[in-house]
Structure to design on (398 residues):
């Protein structure tokens, strides 16, 4: 049966790795702030291309250049992918381990290539080194990866690759047959092994791109629903949250209350202290409001210094207590050197299941304007159209 020449397989691998390198670098340049580790993977792929080119010069250039250079490039490239995976999962890169493994691995390969020539030992040294890199990445996915198909696919491939390379290393030591483990040798078995090894290298890159794309999708989805400065919901995200809670309102007939919160004299803070400090104040306010709420409550920034809070299954008198807690916390010293600030709050309760968000917001804003007109730093409740259990007593209103 005719088999592919190893050099042909190397050429095909070089072309495919080169294409993937371009793709990875393009993604890195576009999303390096959003997804860590892309640069390391891109550089690792580039080193794999260099290794493939060097392997292709075997027999034309000295072994110290073709074989030792190619294997050293492979070690460096696979190690860089490990560092990239560590960064991707928010772990400190193992730079010392990477440097030590690459130096010792390359030194061992050089010794058994140039001083005491033994192909089997070289295979074992190389296999053990890259096994450590692959096993580390599999462990990272197991410990820090989300339970999603993309992570399971990536981690499974890493584990499979780790098993394959360590099996190859053990086979080289135990059997000592060059033909069984020499990927550059002619023959069907060697060609199949070489093709599978190169295919796995490309498949691992695709798998990492899959988990990176999943991460990027999550980030972009969050950006579409969250305010980038304060990290609370934006109008779109708040609208989605309101739609979900309104559906529950129709089903369970539970009260739904909304707070409209506006910082008092925020323009003076920007004028006196600058917009950078103003942004810090807004972030602090969002943090305080979020900390004063239940997990089921939703807080959003509607632009400028205006915040809105949705409180499902919250009776009006409890909502007023929560609003007073927010007002009091924001009046207290913040301990961060930020200028003090107060807020005015308007409170409105969903009148019926037929009322839309814009109507509820309008009534809460009306109550907010009343708080502003009455001196600011206070809470007002909108009681238009509310009777019975939905209407608070006058003593509850600040």
């Amino acid at each position: 049966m005719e088999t592919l020449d190893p050099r042909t397989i190397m050429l095909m691998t070089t072309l495919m790795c080169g294409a993937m390198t371009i793709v990875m670098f393009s993604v890195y340049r576009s999303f390096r702030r959003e997804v860590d580790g892309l640069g390391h993977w891109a550089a690792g792929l580039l080193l794999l291309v260099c290794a493939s080119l060097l392997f292709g010069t075997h027999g034309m250039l000295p072994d110290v250049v073709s074989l030792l250079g190619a294997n050293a490039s492979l070690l460096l490239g696979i190690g860089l992918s490990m560092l990239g995976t560590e960064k991707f999962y928010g772990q400190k890169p193992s730079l010392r381990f990477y440097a030590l493994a690459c130096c010792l691995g390359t030194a061992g390969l050089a010794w058994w290539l140039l001083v005491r020539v033994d192909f089997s030992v070289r295979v074992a040294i190389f296999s053990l080194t890259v096994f450590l890199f692959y096993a580390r990445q599999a462990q990272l996915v197991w410990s820090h990866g989300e339970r999603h198909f993309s992570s399971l696919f990536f981690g499974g491939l890493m584990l499979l690759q780790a098993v394959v390379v360590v099996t190859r290393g053990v086979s080289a030591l135990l059997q000592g047959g060059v033909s069984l483990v020499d990927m550059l040798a002619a023959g069907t078995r060697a060609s199949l092994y070489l093709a599978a090894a190169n295919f796995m290298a490309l498949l691992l890159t695709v798998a990492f791109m899959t988990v990176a794309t999943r991460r990027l999708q999550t980030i972009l989805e969050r950006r579409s629903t969250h305010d980038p400065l304060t990290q609370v919901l934006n109008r779109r995200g708040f609208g989605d949250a309101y739609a979900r809670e309104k559906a529950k309102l129709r089903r369970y007939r539970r009260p739904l209350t909304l707070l409209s919160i506006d910082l008092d004299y925020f323009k003076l803070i920007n004028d006196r202290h600058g917009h950078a400090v103003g942004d810090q104040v807004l972030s602090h306010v969002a943090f305080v409001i979020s900390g004063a709420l239940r997990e089921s409550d939703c807080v959003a920034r509607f632009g400028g210094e205006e915040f809105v809070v949705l409180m499902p299954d919250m009776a009006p008198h409890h909502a007023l207590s929560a609003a007073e807690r927010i007002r009091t916390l924001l009046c207290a010293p913040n301990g961060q050197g930020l200028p003090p600030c107060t807020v005015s709050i308007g409170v409105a309760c969903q009148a019926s299941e037929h009322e839309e968000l814009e109507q509820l917001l309008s009534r809460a804003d009306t109550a907010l304007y009343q708080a502003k007109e009455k001196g600011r730093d206070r809470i007002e409740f909108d009681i238009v159209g509310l009777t019975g259990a939905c209407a608070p007593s006058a003593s509850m209103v600040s």
User: Anything to note?
Assistant: The radius of gyration is 31 Å. The chain has two domains: 6-223, 235-396. The longest helix spans residues 188-225.
